Amino acid sequence: MGSNEELLAKIKMQAGDIKDAMQLKEENLSAMRAILRISPMPLEQCQSGSFNQDACYTQLVNSLKTAESLLSSAHQYTATGLTDLLLDLQELISNFEETMMEKGIPVPATSPQTLRSDISEFQEKAGIFLILHDLCKSLTAFQEGLAAQSVM
């Protein structure tokens, strides 16, 4: 769990840096999400009230793979922190898939997604922020769901 918390901190830091540098406002982000066609990552299976371990693992790995493919498609913004974060994300996906196999949970196959290629650098950075923000929410929901299960 410690490495997940470290990755979560890295993601939050990278997202915060982008948001601060671009002076992004919340009202602009929802419009940008629509323009870029980036759907929020689903969380319902990982919410602590409806936590289902098998479904949550599947939902989380799908979200992680989607985020990884979207971030990998960024072509204008290639900060070193993002490159390092992608490597950490790939390792996390691999660790989750290994855990799923050990638990007998089928590992989902996903289709890679990419950011639109006809976007400005500003739009790409906003998209990266949205993806990182969603990643934070997904990992936090997963950790909270697991914690709630272990208390019961």
TrEMBL record:
Name of this chain's protein: Granulocyte colony-stimulating factor
A GO molecular-function descriptor: granulocyte colony-stimulating factor receptor binding
Any single GO BP term: positive regulation of myeloid cell differentiation
Entry coiled-coil feature ranges: none
Cited InterPro entries: 4_helix_cytokine-like_core, GCSF/MGF
